[in-house]
Design a protein that fits this description.
This protein is mainly α. Helix content is about 85%, strand content about 0%. The longest helix has 22 residues.
Length: about 70
C-alpha cells in the first residue's frame, strides 16, 4: 500500500504540478493560465511541506494569493 501511495504522490503531485507550472505561464493572460498556475503551485506546496522547505511553501502561498488577486480584480 505504501508503494501505491508513493506512486500516486509522484505522478499526481510532482509530475502534474510541474506540468501545470510549465504550461501556465504561456496562458497567464487567460483565466485558464491563472488556474493552471494556482493548481501547480498548490500541488508543489504539498511537495514543499513533505520536504520541510517552508520558505518555498511561503513563496507558493504568496504566488497563489497573487493569482487569485489577479483573477478577482
Amino acid at each position: 500500500m505504501d508503494k501505491y501511495k508513493e506512486l500516486l504522490y509522484k505522478i499526481f503531485v510532482i509530475y502534474i504540478g510541474t506540468f501545470c507550472m510549465m504550461a501556465g505561464p504561456f496562458f497567464v493572460n487567460d483565466l485558464s493560465g491563472k488556474i493552471l498556475c494556482i493548481t501547480g503551485l498548490t500541488l508543489l506546496t504539498i511537495q514543499t511541506q513533505k520536504t520541510k522547505s517552508y520558505n518555498l511553501s511561503l513563496l507558493n502561498i504568496v504566488g497563489i494569493s497573487g493569482y487569485f488577486y489577479s483573477i478577482f480584480s
